[in-house]
Input
Amino acid sequence: MGDTAMEEKRMGQKRKKNLDGGVPVLDVRSLEAVYQMDDGVIRAVNDVSFTIAEGETMGLVGETGAGKTTTAFSILRLLPERTGRIPRGEILYKGENLLEKSADEMRMIRGSCISMIFQDPMTALNPILTVGDQILESLEIHNVENRAEKELKSRVDELMSLVGISPARKGEYPHQFSGGMKQRIVIAIALACEPLLLIADEPTTALDVTIQAQVLVLMEELKARLGTSMIMISHDLGVVAKTCDSVAIMYAGEIVEYGTAGDIFEGKVHHPYTIGLFQAIPRLDEDTLRLRPISGLMPDPSNLPPGCRFHPRCPDCMDECRDGKPYRYDRGGHKILCNLFRKEEGV
Output
């Protein structure tokens, strides 16, 4: 990202949605991410592609172990140095490939242009620093305008008020806050430099239902105010339905279905895995005490099955699913990776 563009972003110039074909905020192309372990290679992300426009929120959905967090860490180049690597793919932020950036350039991009709300607020904060100092640290690192210390501290007060916490508490430590308030502090840190892209990794998982609702409302208000694009990583389809414009369903490191929220939640054409996720949701209008879980378990990423990754658990599995690559169905941007659609379309 050029100096001029970064300066304009940090000056907080007015942003507008760009859903009509302009350069996307993020364009991930054929991304692969692996972990090299002593006993083999873990293939965590396999040929993943998606785009996010300015002001858009995309939901990344799947079971634990699907590769959602590794995808997020790959975007920010936060994979473990000794074991993690990206052998293939492109990650284009505003048209520039992040995989070609130096370590110093990435440090300036993280927090300033792309921020992340980590999964567990209990471990995301430093226990020996006050919450005010932790918010201030991000502002100082990205203080390219050389603003005075007094101005930066005033910005800390503003951010704490923005997330609903009194600035009078900025001298307190993380252990003095509840789980929901810790999450608010993490959000304040992530939004300190008004990033164009926010990655929220299951930001409500550790919270009770009431606090979950408050945090989601807060994030939506801040997103609307700042025009920030967002990746919402979750296994909760209710949260995704409430907050997302587009949805990517992830299984065993692959995106098996991708489309608008309308495609996923109101459409009639779905991948069998997506159908299984919906059937596992408890319904108040059904007279039954039993859920309908997806049979089997997520495959071992160090020993993925051949053919369609979902075929060992799929109720509609066919012979061709066990060996060859699944058919890529694409109708109006609604994409599904499944051989059932090859049969339906007579391919």
